[in-house]
Amino acid sequence: MPDRSGRFGRRPHFSREELDRECEAIVGTFLRGRYGEARYPISTDDLTVLVERYTSSLDLYADLSAHGEDVEGMTEFFPDELPAVAVSERLSSDPRRENRLRTTLAHELGHAQFHRALWAERFSRGGLFDRADPEAKAICKRDSILEAREVDWMEWQAGYVSGAILMPRSVLGRLVAELCVPRGIHAAVHVESPLAAEMVGRVVEAFRVSPDAARVRLLKLDFLTTERRAPTLFD
């Protein structure tokens, strides 16, 4: 479809279902290859190894301040090799920020896997030849890591991938069903309800993510809702 941002003539469109399937296949295949089964949460070490498989380099202790004080991750694309990922040293050196580190790693994996072909096509047309061209980067700010507006499609897709890698839809769906079905609840839960708080807590514990990351993922999958008339779950 046309790219309204002006960066590309056309841009890839992935449905949420497509991203969920692809991400679950990526992380599931990786974990089964290492351990014979896919068990969650994926460890931070394993997540790091997974990102390394899709990149030419991974710098976990980067100084990204030149791009802005709120920049926590960056993926750089090249015409002749895999992308390079850099993550802010502020995340990697502080154990209290491990959940943000995990979210950022999965976000950059989204750029590396789902946007590499787009840049490769642009390189092949001769649009960019300079490896240091500042355009050939996805620079990810703190506020857009989890939830960018859909008009910022590249960041939105990477943000969705981050949630889908860390909290695969089928596994998350089973957790929600185990919580809701015994209570006779078959509709989305209002985000401000006590049950929503319990659901978020279960997801935080099960997948080692922040409450914000859990809440965003549950909202995107319609397990939580901001509407008073909730859609039905588990169709």
Question: How is this structure best described in words?
Answer:
This is Zn-dependent peptidase ImmA (M78 family). The protein is an alpha/beta fold and 235 residues long. The chain has 2 domains: 16-166, no CATH class; 169-225, no CATH class. The chain is built from 10 helices and 6 strands; from the N terminus they run H-H-E-E-E-H-H-H-E-H-H-H-E-H-H-E. The chain has helices at 16-35, 44-53, 89-92, 98-114, 116-124, 142-146, 153-166, 169-180, 194-207, 211-220, and strands at 57-62, 71-76, 84-88, 137-141, 189-190, 224-225. The chain has a 4-stranded mixed sheet. It has a two-stranded parallel ribbon with strand order 5-6. Helix 4 packs across helix 7. The longest helix has 20 residues, at 16-35. The radius of gyration is 18 Å and the shape is globular. The two termini are 29 Å apart. The model has no long low-confidence stretch (mean pLDDT 88).
Short description:
This protein is 49% helix and 11% strand. The protein has 235 residues and is α/β, with parallel strands linked by helices.
Report the β-strand fraction as a percent range: 5-15%
User: With helices defined by DSSP (H or I, 4 residues minimum), what is the helix count?
Assistant: 10
Please list the strands of the largest sheet in the order they lie side by side: 1-3-2-4
Termini Cα gap: 29 Å
Main beta sheet:
4 strands, mixed
The chain-level structural class is alpha/beta
Question: What does the radius of gyration come to?
Answer: 18 Å
**Element order: H for helix, E for strand:** HHEEEHHHEHHHEHHE
Q: What is the mean predicted local confidence, pLDDT?
A: 88
Percent range of helical residues: 40-55%
What spatial form do the alpha-carbon principal axes imply? Answer: globular
Unreliable parts = none
Number of strands: 6
Number of separate structural domains: 2
Protein name: Zn-dependent peptidase ImmA (M78 family)
